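Model: Ready when you are.
Researcher: Fold this.
Model:
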Amino acid sequence: MKEGQKDIFFITGESRAAVGASPFIEGLKKKGYEVLYLIDPIDEYVIQQLKDFDEKKLKNCSKEGLDIEEGEDEKKKLEEQKASFEGLCTLVKEVLGDKVEKVLVGTRMLESPCILVTSEWGWSANMERIMKAQALRDSSMSSYMVSKKTLELNPEHSIVVELRKRADADKSDRTVKDLIWLLYETSLLTSGFALDEPTGFGNRIHRMIKFALTINEDEKVEEEETQPLISEEEMKDGGEETRMEDID
C-alpha cells in the first residue's frame, strides 16, 4: 500500500478489464493508491462479511464515503468548487427527482463527467446485477437492499463546466434538461447499472443527433419515389396487367 493509505480500496465487477476502466478509480490510480479487483461473483458475498483486514477497513470504491487523503490546497479548492456548482447540483436534483437521492461535487473522477455511487450499506451496482440474474431471488429483500443513488459531478470536466454556464443562463432550456438526463443515463451505464427507460434514452440521443446535424425537430424527410409512373401508352397496351405482374 502507498504510504499514508489508511484503508484497503477494492472494486467489484464482471472482469478485470471492466473494473480497470471504471470511472470510480480514476482519481485513486492517479494518486498511486492500490485497488483490489474483485471479479468473481462470490466476492460480493464474501466482502459483505469481511469488514476489515489487519486493522484496516475495506472500502468499496463504488460507494459513498470514500476518504481520499487531500492536502490543504486541495480541500480549499474543493470547497470553492462546491460553492460554484451548488446551483447546478440543485437543478440536476430537481430535473432527476427521485432517481437520485443527492447530487454533489465529487473528487474521485478524472476523465468522466459524472458517476453514480451507492450508499455504504446497500448493494453495489455489481451486486444488483448478480441478484437480478438469480432465478429464485427474494424480491422482498431486493426492495430494501437496492441503494439510493448519489450523482457525483466532476467540476473540472468540460461538459459539466459548460452545462453550468448554460444552466446559469437559462434553467428552463430544454437542451439543458436533455443533457442532464443523458448524463444521468450514461452514468448508469458506466457505473454498472441497467437503464431504467431505454426508449427514453434512445429518443434523447436521437434529438441530440438531430441537433448536431441541424435538423429541425418538426422537419420531415420527403420519401423518394422508387416506382416509375405508368404512362398512358402502357395503360392502352395492357401495361396495367404487366405492372401488376411486376408487383407480384
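Researcher: Now this one.
Model:
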Amino acid sequence: MRKLACTIALAVNLVAPAGHVAWSQSAATIKVVVPYSAGGAADTLARLLAEQIRRTQGPMLIVENRPGANGVIGTEAVAHAAPNGNTVLLIPNAFLVNPHMRKVNYDALADFEPICYLTRTPAVIAVNSASPLLTLADLIGAARAKPSDVTLAGAPGGVLQIAFVMLTRAAGVKMVLVPYPGDAPAVNALLGGHVTSLLYPYPAVAAQVNAGTVRVLATASRARIDPLPDVPTIAESGYKDFEVDIWYGLMAPARTPKETLVQIAGWFAAALQAPEIKVKLAVLEHDPVGKCGADFGALIRKEYDEYGRVIREANIKAE
C-alpha cells in the first residue's frame, strides 16, 4: 500500500481561517449518499468507513443508496442538498464522465466541494492463461497485424472505455471493444475464449489470477501494484505517463463551510489510516490514498477536462 498523504494535505490545504469556530456534528446524523445499488464497490467502501468512524470517532454516519442513471440520480440529490455538512456524496470517478455523456442537472465542478480522494483500484489488461500473448507488446502487435481479430472486453460508456481509447490511440492500433454490463460476464467471456483480452479493475480477475486461469499483461496504474510486483505498468510498457485508475472520493454540496470540510476530511483520513481498515481495504484491492482538499480538487479538474476531450474526440456515447 502506498503511504497516505492526507495528514500533510490537510495541514497545507484545509486550514480553517483564523477566528472561525470549529464545526462539530458529533451528535448529528450525517448521510453518506452512494449513487449506486447496495453491495457494489462504492457501497462497500462507504459502509466500511462509516462504521469505522462511528465506532472510533463518535459521529453517526448512515449510508443511503440512491441508484439510477449510472449514478446521476443520487449525485443530483446531493448537489441540491443543504450545504451544512449533514449530506455528503461518495463517488467513483465515473462522476467526472457522466456530465460529458448524458443530461445532468448539476455542474460537476461548480456544485460540489471536494473533501477527500479516498482510495483507488487499479485497472488491468488481462488474457486467458492459455493465450499465446505474454506481454502488452504481444497484444498490440496482434492488433496491428489483424485488428478485426483482436477483441477486448470492457465496460461501456465509462472510465474504462476512455482508457481503451487512450491506449489504442497511443499505440496507433485498432481493437474491437466488446461491451459487457458487469465484471462477471466479461471474465466469463475471457475464460471461455470469446474475447482476446479484458480491461477491468483488478478485483474482477484477482481470483482467476490466483487460480492461474488468467494472466495480467499490464496494469493501468502509475506504479506496479503489490499483488503483481512483476507485472509492468502500461507506462513502463512504452506508453509514457499512461495512468487510469478507478478511484473513489468524497464530495459535499457547494458552499459547505471550509471548517466543516476540514472536520469531515479528518474523520475519513483517520479511518483510512486505521490498521484494521488497511487490512480490509487490501482484501478488497483498494489502495488508500487520503489526498484531501485542494489537491483532490486539482485532480478532479484535470481528469474532468481529460475525460471530456477523449469523449468528444472519440465520439463516445452513453449506452
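Researcher: Key takeaway?
Model: The chain has eleven helices and ten strands.
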